[in-house]
What we know:
10 strands
Amino acid sequence: xxxxxxxxxxxxxxxxxxxxxxGHEVMVGTRDAAATMASTEPDRMGNPPFSVWVRDxxxxxxxxxxxxxxxxxxxxxxxxxxxSVAALEAAGAxxxxxxxxxxxxxxxxxxxxxxxxxxxxxxxxxQIQRAFPDARVVKSLNTMNSAxxxxxxxxxxxxxxxxxCGDDADAKATVTELLRQAGWRDIxxxxxxxxxxxxxxLMPAWLRIWQALGGSGHTMFNWKxxx
Length: 227
Ligand SMILES: NC(=O)c1ccc[n+]([C@@H]2O[C@H](COP(=O)([O-])OP(=O)(O)OC[C@H]3O[C@@H](n4cnc5c(N)ncnc54)[C@H](OP(=O)(O)O)[C@@H]3O)[C@@H](O)[C@H]2O)c1
């Protein structure tokens, strides 16, 4: 499948690399492809620049947000939540129309200590859906570290949970199939996109759990719904 991954950060790389490994045709979207390739600076987490990462992932293409969105039958939003709507505007509503838009972003404001800039009665997933009414938004994978998103087997033999929600049943089925292909077994459908409020609001708790486990490198944990 042709898949666009909007975002060159940890999430964009983890998702793009794994989707390519699974046999998909992946193009990553960025603001300025030439600038992204020219950058020699490590990212804010100290990871090597994108140009170094892509050398080890030669099947992954890089383009502008618009070029990538045009390429993808499925578009993954892995941009910073504070600017996701702007990044998707740069991708172009016309390039998102009718497409599955898998939204992994979180509305975290780290300038305010990791608070949420939208919550309770609205969510970033819903804001994106309202901004791009012709896209079919599915919220998923935002509740865990990027290393686990499409590699659930790296933790507890894959015995943990991932949530999906969205207003379009076919779009959710497409995302669910991708999740299964990546190895997920416990995929919990939470219903319509209003459920994005709840899964985004898990993030302040996720951050406190992460700190309690030691912070920094202690990110390999996840939610497990035991019934
Ligand atoms: N890190 C995790 O493990 C994790 C886990 C769950 C969910 N998430 C969510 O996933 C998303 C991506 O997180 P991340 O840590 O990989 O990366 P990030 O640093 O939050 O975002 C990187 C991306 O945002 C784009 N961006 C930054 N400023 C922009 C602007 N002004 N206009 C347009 N685009 C802009 C960057 O574009 P350029 O490529 O042009 O630089 C880059 O592609 C976030 O919403 C985060 O909350 C992250």
